Amino acid sequence: MQTILGAGGAIGRELAKSLSAYTSEIRLVARNPKQVNGSDILMPADLTDQAAIREAIAGSEVVYVTIGFPYSLKIWRKNWPAFMQAVIEACIANQSKLVFFDNIYMYDPQSLDGMTEDAPMNPSSEKGKVRKDLVEMIMKAVESGKLTALIARSADFYGPSIKNVSMLTETVIKPLSEGKTANWMGPLDFKHSFTHVRDAGKATALLGNTPDAYNQTWHLPTASDPYTGKEWIEKFALALGVKPKSRAVSRFMARLMGVFVPVMREMPEMMYQYDRPYDFNSDKFIHRFGIQPTPYDEGIREIVEVDYAK
Length: 310
Fold this sequence. Notes:
- This protein is 38% helix and 15% strand.
- The chain contains 10 helices and 13 strands.
- Helix 3 runs parallel beside helix 4, helix 5 (167-177) packs across helix 7 and helix 7 (229-240) crosses helix 10 (296-307).
- The protein is globular.
């Protein structure tokens, strides 16, 4: 049995698809889980409830954490530590392996240009401090010898059929498709990596089913030589057949936009990721498994064909 906690999101769905290559027993846990493979075991659960977490993990060989709590610092501080502690304890009790799908928030802002798995954890944001604490909780349990776990880390992700959950979709692709101006969260001249959601799902499934991949951190396969904000907008505009109208959003503008778009209220502290090069290095994974990530131009073409075909 392999179990996905938070199976309703974009990563959870892609992971479920890929896990079917390794097991026929896939348990999908979410508030309202839906079939992905047709034979999945669906378990509706409130994953803020510790009893529900224990029940969800019971009997699992591998547990994947892909849950995304609402993008609010207040909620993150309340939910994440308690959730992760309960997951770790249940995994230890069931001798389940743990795979944590993570982001780059805990990295030192000065290490984002060519960041590897060895980048120092020194977050400048409050959300980054929450993520750092989670990683340290997991690795402390690993170092104690009680838990077998790995960190599967992704850059910001993009891909088809993930509207409403991708910042790139909401701020760039969707506005351009409607003939509006793309909003880039900061200066337009810095490069910014994105991990294709399908690559993330396949790689996470592969890592979870590779015994010697555990007790370490992996950057999921992500194309090298990322585009700048200006180039991302131009590429999508060309694919959509529209003018590349763009706007560099300042922290002040983001706060104003937050009056109308609640998620934007949470963005100002994270905008350091856009005022410098953000280049995600996944050489470790690529060299170990020989799997190449989706090229950016192919990813752009796929999104337009799937989501915006006229």
